[in-house]
Amino acid sequence: MTALDPRPARSPGITYQELLDTDTHPVPDVLRLESPRFLGDADISIERYISREYHELEKERLWKRVWQFACREEHIPGPGDYNLYEIADMSFIVVRQPDMSIKAYPNACLHRGRRLKDYDGHCSELRCPFHGFAWALDGSLADVPARWDFPHVDDRAEVDFMLPECKVATWGGFVFINPDPNCEPFDDFVRDLAEQFEVWKLEDRYVEAHVTKVIAANWKIAQEAFSEAYHVNATHPQILYYLGDTNSQVDVWENCSRVITPALTPSPLLWYEVSQDEMMRSMLDVRTDQDSPVPVPDGASARAIGAAMGRERWRPIAGDMVDSMSDAEFMDSIDYTLFPNFHPWGAFNRIVYRFRPNGDNHRSAIMEVLFLSPFEGERPAPAARRDLTIDESWTTATELGMLAKVFDQDVFNMSKVQLGLETTFKPGITLANYQESKVRWLHTKLGEWVGR
Predict the structure, then answer these.
(1) Fold type of domain 68-178
(2) Distance in angstroms (rounded) separating the CA atoms of residues 365 and 383
(3) Is the pTM of the predicted complex or chain greater than 0.85?
(4) Max Cα separation, the chain?
(5) C-alpha span between 350 and 208 (Å, rounded)
(6) What is the CA radius of gyration of the chain?
(7) Taking a C-beta distance cutoff of 8 angstroms, is the pair 449, 65 a contact?
(8) 3-state class percentages of the chain: helix first, strand second, coil last, to nearest 5
(9) Average pLDDT estimate for 40-45
(10) FRET pair for 21, CA 20 to 30 Å: which of 4, 216, 220, 423?
(11) How many angstroms separate the CA atoms of 227 and 437, rounded?
(12) Residue 340, preceding peptide bond in cis (omega within 30° of 0)
């Protein structure tokens, strides 16, 4: 990776760092970091999206070896609570132990291979529904029906008939697993992300909403739609009036990257000057024949007013902490990605994304959205997961609010991208050097793992 001076490739308009200079509150150091990278300008092969062979390589060289987000700790709050994590054609049981530690096992009986669990739940043991072989929560063999017929199992019980374990780690209230027993330490893998989130404690949040949707496209196509703001002008034209799309700041580190897109500042792609009041009306989705509920007086800043509204919205829950947070932390989209597919948003934004292959189908994906919200008192139970089919609109999930219709606009493109890549004569996709450098970073890392 080569350091890149972003100034020669700047969109007209205020830079993100210049916008931070106008903030009404002190800006945290993490938002002052800049780490642009030039990762080359070669096209990315379309085989990564359409090839079954490449999907098989991802299974063997990526998903069986990389650290990946499996569930939240609150999804398995007590001993015996378990959550299924499934990726491609693999399934894992993530289970809370009596001492409150967490273990993860491949979801397969060691007798005849039947899946041990089919749903998330609670258990006192891991018993196979086929013949009744059972394991204790710690993975030790607990019961073999008609054990007299398995003297060869007795001899191997403490070695071959212990459930094999995956590596497990936690960070920010999330549980990560790695199927590779020889994987790199999780602390090394997550270091860049963890250091930057020291100011934003995601372990102090709860899952307020949890929605998944099947997408008719490769998982990378789905993920890439949320890795740049360059698409806003064509895909989300209604938000150009209050979103600085092409003025986004893109930063790349080793295992994580981010795109920061400022709000209540207009897109440089607009052909006329947008007033502060117009920006606010657009963000609030006010019709032209309606009065704005938050008019912006002449000379006032819509961005500062929007941030003040955010402070008062969260003050009943977060208390005086909101007074120490910058306007940027309330207003801006701060989208991090931890390779390969985990997207926690920074600051007071609640969004977390995850993108996975839909089972063993390389032309289908699962997009997952969680809202992580602050709370006071006892932690609320996590929201039940809502699973949307390929034909259901995001707006069915009313808990996502205004974001749902934005997601529908994004998803509308994804299947069309898949179909276009299956049709095109062009062997690769072409990326912008700066605005789409997070997408290129994802592919650079993928190439390092997959080997091509």
Answers:
(1) Rieske Iron-sulfur Protein (2.102.10)
(2) 22
(3) yes
(4) 87
(5) 9
(6) 24
(7) yes
(8) 35, 25, 45
(9) 96
(10) 4
(11) 9
(12) yes
